[in-house]
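Continuing the batch. This is chain 6 of the set; chains 1 through 5 are on the previous pages. Same settings as before, nothing changed between runs. Recording input and output for traceability.
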Amino acid sequence: MLPGRETDTIRVLHVDDEPDFVDMVATFLRREDGRLTVETATSADDALDRLADGAFDCVISDHDMPGRDGIDFLETIREERPDLPFVLYTGKGSEEVASKAISAGVTEYLQKESGTAQYAVLANRITNAVEQYRSKRAVEESQKRLSLFVEQSPFAVVEWDENFEFASVNDKAEDVLGYSEAELVGESWEIIVPESDRDAVGEVVSELLAAGGGYHSINENVRADGERITCEWHNRVVTDEDGETVAIFSQFQDITDRKQREERLSTVARRFEAILENPLTLIGLLRPDGTVLDANRTSLDLIDASADEVTGKKFWNTPWWTRSETGQEQLREWIDRAADGEHVRFEAKHPVSDGETATIDGLIHPVRDDEGAVTELVAIGRNITEHKDRERALQRERDRLDEFASIVSHDLRSPLTVARGRTTLLAETLEDADVGGGGVDEYIDSILHALDRMENIIEDSLTLAKQGQPVSEPEPIALADAARDSWDSVETADATLAVAVGDDAILADPSRLRSVFENLFRNSVEHGSTGNRPEADDSVEHGCDESAGLTITVGRVDPFHTSTRAPTDSEGFYVEDDGTGVPAGARENVFDAGHTSSDDGTGFGLAIVEGIAEAHGWDVRLSEGADGGARFTFTGVEFLE
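Output for chain 6:
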């Protein structure tokens, strides 16, 4: 006899119209298996009432009973409880009864015999039937719970068959993949995987089936509409005690947005790291109270310190900042302003590792959380010490240039004025004394001409020195008006001006733009004869003085229709004549100060033009014009729409 365990108790209802017999059977069954608890009924109707009131695991019934027989009793039970174990235990068995019982859904069929051995068989039949019944119910309950889990899961779920074809999907899977369950069932996993990923996913499937366990993967999938999405998969092979595959499930979710966010964050992180490690930028992270949280390598190298030496300290107490009380108060004020949400720009002297100071151009920038509260401060700076040194050196050069200009203007002009006056008096004295001839008049004229030339050189030198200084406050100027006004200020002989710029206006210094036009017009008129073009070895500034028939054109450069005469990729304007032009081999030095082919020229005109262009941030170049003359093209010019 098997010992009974309360958790394994099997409740049996034995139905027979002989009370003594059912009591005896109950006694023997309890002896055979302690788990069996037997209750009795003497009729089918009585048994049905007992079944309605209590839960039984198995029914044993005689066949030949008054009123309702065993087959009718079985059929009635099957209407309500189709799976309840039912043993037909009868003394009048026949093939006909057995056939009817099987058709009605009997679990076991057993004939009554003499002797007690039959009760061991009956007990065994009962326990086997109940265990199978309970196992089936457990599987059904498990499947029901699994079905509820699948259907109610916030994740998409797929059940696969042994060939890894779709067996079922839940509603969430339909939403993610864009297919209905009917469209997927029987299809291979390949229907939702792009061809580019099939080899990798195929390896996952093979490893999953071989290992018989779980597997995690992230891969691209293709929706029904062709859209590519990224999904995270958790796969599981369910096996029985013998290792046989019972089911294959996959739980997955669309993580496309998450992957895109991760990629954006990764990109931002890489960019931030690149900015943080910029060798030209000083970066520090502070709390709103000024405590140093972190600093980049460039900042630490500036003071020859490690991160541990500065983190956790107030910014004004680190080696970066001056120890003077005034300087520290100033920094605390800047940090307080930044903590209040202000972007604070500053320039200050910082101590450096060699005992010197560095000039830092900086900004303290507040960092806010989603609610707008300032949580951190970012201090960004550039070491502009060298820039400041260059500025000071440049200022010294400008001061010396101004001093030179003053000397040229005053100290040289005064003697020239005296020389011119004395020469004029000498000429008048000789004329009064009637002393002439012998070339005296020619000598006097030559001296006066030389003095005029010296005066022109002084004037052009001063202009060149001043025009090269950067233009700080350009003004809107109409190109056409500037060109025409400049033309009226130059002796143009028989030359003609053609203006082809319409109402175009640019930003420039008015007086210096006028100087550009005047010098270029003068250069063309004095050197741009339409006569025979000189050979390559002739003068640089077009060798003939005649200007008859010369046309000078001012036009706008179109960056979308460049010319081989003056290639450019930005807007600008040009001044072009149809004279003899400048040979290609002689164009390189035309902008050099003092370079001239004329006995009367100073050689500063084109140098002044180049200096004014550079002061505006323009480029100027010389090329051959459309009709063979000289073309000066200015690019980088800012036009006003």
